[in-house]
Amino acid sequence: MKKDDFLYLADIQEALKRIMEYSSCSMEDFLASTMIQDAIIRNFEIMGEASKRLSNEFREAHPEIPWSLLARTRDRFIHHYAGVRMDILWSTIQNDLPLLQKQIGKIMKERHHS
C-alpha cells in the first residue's frame, strides 16, 4: 500500500467512525436534526473524495469495497444536495456501513501487520 493510500484509507475510517457516532440516535432524532444530517453527509463526502484519491492499484486489490459507489455518493451529495432522501441515507447507514467499517478496519489492520 502506498503511503498516500494509507492516509486516504485512514480518512475513510475516521469518516465512518464519525458517521456511526453521529447516527447512534434514533431514526426520529436523525430525521428531526439537520445538524446531524449535515454532519453525516459531510463525512460521506469525505469518504467519497478519499476513495477517488486512492490509487487504481489499491482499489483493484480490494474489489470487495464499493469504491465507485462511494465516489458516486459523494458526487450526488455535492451536486444534488437538495434531493437527498434522508430515509434512504438512514437505511444505508444502518444496513451497509457496519460491513464497510469492518472491511476498512481489516485492511488497516493488515497494513499495520505488514
TrEMBL record:
Going by the UniProt record, its keywords in alphabetical order are: Hydrolase, Nuclease, Nucleotide-binding, Phosphoprotein, Toxin-antitoxin system
The record's section on Pfam families has: HepT-like (PF01934)
Q: What's one GO-annotated cellular component?
A: toxin-antitoxin complex
Checking InterPro entries in the record gives: HepT-like, HepT_RNase_toxin
One molecular function GO term is: nucleotide binding
Give the protein's recorded name.
DUF86 domain-containing protein
Tell me what organism the protein belongs to. Answer: Candidatus Reconcilbacillus cellulovorans
Lineage, top ranks: Bacteria, Bacillati, Bacillota, Bacilli, Bacillales
